[in-house]
From TrEMBL:
Residues annotated as domain Double zinc ribbon: 7-57
Database matches in PANTHER family: DNA UTILIZATION PROTEIN YHGH
Domain of life of the source: Bacteria
Record's protein name: ComF family protein
Pfam family, one: DZR_2
Family per record: Belongs to the ComF/GntX family.
SUPFAM superfamilies from the UniProt entry: PRTase-like
Length: 230
């Protein structure tokens, strides 16, 4: 397998998702320019705060989601790489991006070594259009890296919601209310790590967490590659 991968790299060399340079799916220079989120962070939603100890105000809208953590700000080379990964068919970026995600996942998994990884699902119509779910690709690589469990059931999107882009916070929340459902055996209080590429207001992640809680989940922690500051 290693020899086959080397042959593929020679025939079709990796191209950096951040800058387009040949040689790696995410080059060292672009990795260095990814701006990690820095303390002080909101203890619940992970948003960067100006001063430690101030209230973020997220608790009223994130009731089912125990915690949200993101690796970095949605800007620069990471923004370009995620856009190519999500919309331009660059599925080969998944391992490089999952490698970044392990920075935050490893910390959260340290508390729950039996946690189950669950991707944010796409509606079947959107999945047919795109051909793949980027969150599923990230979860597949993370499960391999961290040796975490695959749940017996799955989270599904039961309502085909319009894209969240351009909606304000209240409209984002109403757009995804009751849009998800857990299908499978009850989760019996198990810890869930919910995975997606980008978090903005957390409305989609909160709706997913509500569905997982209804399916019997215990603590639900969401982790994403990037965070949009709104």
């Amino acid at each position: 397998m290693a020899g086959w991968n080397r042959l593929l790299d020679w025939l079709l060399p990796p191209r950096c998702g951040g800058c387009g340079a040949v040689g790696a799916w995410l080059c060292a220079g672009c990795r260095d320019r990814v701006r990690r989120l820095e303390e002080p962070l909101c203890r619940r939603c992970g948003r960067e705060l100006e001063h430690a100890g101030i209230s973020c105000g997220c608790r009223a809208r994130l009731r089912c989601l125990s915690r949200l953590r993101s690796v970095a700000a949605y800007e620069g080379p990471l923004e370009r790489a995620i856009h190519r990964f999500k919309y331009a068919g660059w599925q080969a970026l998944a391992p490089a991006l999952a490698g970044l995600l392990t920075e935050v996942v490893s910390v959260e998994v340290g508390v729950h070594t039996d946690a189950q990884l669950v991707p944010v699902p796409l509606h079947p119509r959107r999945l047919r259009q795109r051909g793949y779910n980027q969150a599923v690709l990230l979860v597949g690589d993370l499960r391999h890296r961290l040796r975490l469990q695959k749940p017996a059931g799955r989270l599904i999107r039961v309502r085909d919601t319009p894209p969240q882009v351009g909606l304000d916070r209240l409209r984002r929340r109403s757009n995804v209310d009751d849009a998800f459902e857990w299908r499978g055996p009850p989760l019996a209080g198990g810890a869930i790590l919910l995975v997606d590429d980008v978090a903005t207001t957390g409305a989609t992640l909160e709706s997913c967490a509500a569905a997982l809680k209804a399916g019997g989940a215990g603590q639900v922690v969401a982790v994403t590659l990037a965070r949009v500051d709104v």
